[in-house]
C-alpha cells in the first residue's frame, strides 16, 4: 500500500466515530476514559463485550457483529491503515455494535478494566515460530495473564489459526499450565460438530488457505489460576 494511501486512511480513521486511538502515555498513565466504560459510553447497552486481537482488516469483527447483533465487538490492531477497511464498512452498513481500537496487544489490560470482557478471539496470528520470538506469541503465558485480568471469571478465548505449530504450542501450554480446554479441532472444515461461528465466517486470507487445502485449526479455552 502506498504511503499516500496510508496517510489518507489514517486521516479518515480520525473522523470515524467507531475508531479509538489512545496514545501510549494515555493508557499507561491510566488516563484512558473508556477503560471500564466501553459498554455505557461507546455501545450504550449492557450486551456482552467481545474482542478480536490482531484484527487486521477487521473482516472477522464486522462479520461477527452482523451475525450477533446483541453482542458488542471491538477489533484491536496497531495497524490503523488495515482496520480502516472494517471501520469504513461498519459505518457504511450502519453496523453499530462494532468498534476498533488502535493499540498494541501488550497494553490490553490498560485499555479494559478487570472483568470487563466476555470473550476474546485471536484469528490467524503470526505464529512467531523462532524460539527467540516466543515472547511475541499471542498465547504465551504473559499474554494469557493479561487476558485473564480483563476477562470475566467465565470468559473464554478462541484461537483460530492455519498454523499447526501455533495450535500445538498453545495446546501444550494450556495443558501444562492447567488451563481448561473446552474444544480443540485440527481441521474445523473436515470434522463434524465444529462451532458455527468458526466455520461460517472466513477472512480473505482464510479462503486462500482453504483453496490451498491448508487445514484451519481451532481451540476454545478458559484461563484458570
UniProtKB/TrEMBL annotation:
- SUPFAM superfamilies assigned: S-adenosyl-L-methionine-dependent methyltransferases (SSF53335)
Gene Ontology MF terms in the entry: tRNA (guanine(46)-N7)-methyltransferase activity
Q: Name one Pfam family in it.
A: Methyltransf_4
> What residues does S-adenosyl-L-methionine bind to?
52, 77, 126
- Which EC class does it fall in? transferase
Q: Give EC number(s), comma-separated.
A: 2.1.1.33
* PROSITE patterns for this protein: SAM_MT_TRMB
UniProt cross-references to Gene3D superfamilies, sorted A to Z: Vaccinia Virus protein VP39 (3.40.50.150)
InterPro entries, A to Z: SAM-dependent_MTases_sf, tRNA_(Gua-N-7)_MeTrfase_Trmb, tRNA_methyltr_TrmB_bact
Q: Where does substrate bind?
A: 130, 162, 203-206
Entry's family note:
Belongs to the class I-like SAM-binding methyltransferase superfamily. TrmB family.
NCBIfam families, per the entry: PRK00121.2-2, tRNA (guanosine(46)-N7)-methyltransferase TrmB
The record's function comment reads: Catalyzes the formation of N(7)-methylguanine at position 46 (m7G46) in tRNA.
What is the name listed in the Swiss-Prot or TrEMBL entry for this protein?
Answer: tRNA (guanine-N(7)-)-methyltransferase
The organism's taxonomy opens as: Bacteria, Pseudomonadati, Bacteroidota, Flavobacteriia, Flavobacteriales
Amino acid at each position: 500500500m502506498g504511503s499516500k494511501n496510508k496517510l489518507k486512511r489514517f486521516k479518515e480513521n480520525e473522523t470515524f466515530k467507531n475508531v479509538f486511538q489512545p496514545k501510549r502515555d494515555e493508557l499507561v498513565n491510566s488516563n484512558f476514559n473508556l477503560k471500564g466504560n466501553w459498554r455505557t459510553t461507546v455501545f450504550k447497552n449492557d450486551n456482552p463485550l467481545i474482542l478480536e486481537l490482531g484484527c487486521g482488516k477487521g473482516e472477522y469483527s464486522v462479520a461477527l457483529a452482523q451475525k450477533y447483533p446483541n453482542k458488542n465487538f471491538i477489533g484491536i490492531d496497531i495497524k490503523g491503515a488495515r482496520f480502516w477497511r472494517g471501520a469504513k464498512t461498519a459505518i457504511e452498513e450502519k453496523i453499530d455494535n462494532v468498534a476498533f481500537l488502535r493499540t498494541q496487544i501488550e497494553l490490553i489490560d490498560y485499555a479494559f478494566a478487570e472483568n470487563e470482557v466476555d470473550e476474546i478471539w485471536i484469528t490467524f496470528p503470526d505464529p512467531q515460530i523462532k524460539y527467540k520470538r516466543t515472547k511475541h506469541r499471542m498465547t504465551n503465558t504473559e499474554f494469557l495473564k493479561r487476558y485473564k485480568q480483563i476477562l470475566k471469571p467465565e470468559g473464554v478465548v478462541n484461537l483460530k489459526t492455519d498454523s499447526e505449530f501455533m495450535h500445538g504450542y498453545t495446546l501444550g501450554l494450556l495443558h501444562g499450565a492447567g488451563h481448561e480446554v473446552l474444544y480443540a479441532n485440527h481441521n474445523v472444515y473436515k470434522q463434524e460438530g465444529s462451532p458455527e461461528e468458526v466455520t461460517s465466517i472466513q477472512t480473505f486470507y482464510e479462503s486462500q488457505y482453504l483453496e490451498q487445502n491448508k487445514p484451519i485449526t481451532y481451540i476454545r479455552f478458559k484461563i484458570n489460576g
